[in-house]
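User: My notes are a mess, but here's the protein and magnesium ion's SMILES. Can you give me a structure?
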Amino acid sequence: MQHKQKEKKAIITVKGLQKSFSTGEVEQVIINNLDLDIYEGDFTIIMGSSGAGKSTLMYALSGMDRPSGGRILFDGKDITEYKDDELAVFRRKNCGFVFQQIYLLEKMSLMDNVLTTGFLTGEKKNNVIKRAEDLFDKVNLPKITRKKNSSQISGGEAQRVGIVRALINRPKVVFADEPTGALNSNNSDAVLDVFSKVHEEGQSIIMVTHDKKTALRADRIIYLKDGKIFGECLLGNYQKEDVERTRKLNQFLEEMGW
Ligand SMILES: Nc1ncnc2c1ncn2[C@@H]1O[C@H](COP(=O)(O)OP(=O)(O)OP(=O)(O)O)[C@@H](O)[C@H]1O
Ligand SMILES: [Mg+2]
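Assistant: No problem, the inputs look usable. Here's the predicted complex:
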């Protein structure tokens, strides 16, 4: 069934977003006067070729980096006007992050890395621990691995710890940049099932991927090219092995020149 985008409320509204980088004397425009609405509760996927600016856009949307121009309204409030400390509070309250590089504190176990974030909200410690255990189970990270520290684990394991940490506080919006990039098929499916579950529970997800199987999970796909939204595709509610959905996605990506 097709989603009715019109009835949805925008959780993020982007107006005239601009981002450029200066390298030496050359200025490179990466995001060029981009307008975009991200709807509350949607599983939105951003695609586009390497270097198209997907990560750059994610950093801007989540208040991790400041744009060169334009407005980003989050729940109606312009986050580009926030001071650094206000932005930090905003991120902690509203956002979960899974980025291409996962930064973990090396001096403590993986579990403690997650709990350090989980205890920030003041929720009962036992509840946080239970939720952490449950999320670790769901992403297939065994109990013995949770006791290790970040120097003792593989890239795919680090990625899954990053996902657990991003979800521990049930953020309004989860930003995930290629969260299945380092994972084999089984673990990738487990991780995607976790994201689908989080989505069912009403959280919004914005994810970047190069992977068609991952893209099939989305309600909506946005294709980035030449610093702008080049096209979008509405897929509606996810169902496993949906042939029509796969056909629609393939056709869309072909049109985009992917
Ligand atoms: N800090 C920076 N300084 C200069 N150029 C940058 C900086 N960050 C990104 N860029 C440039 O901006 C462009 C977009 O980068 P970005 O990381 O957003 O691409 P991407 O779409 O996420 O690519 P990928 O799929 O490879 O992750 C690239 O050409 C990159 O070189
Ligand atoms: Mg990227």
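The chain has a mean pLDDT of 94.
User: Great, I'll file this with my notes.
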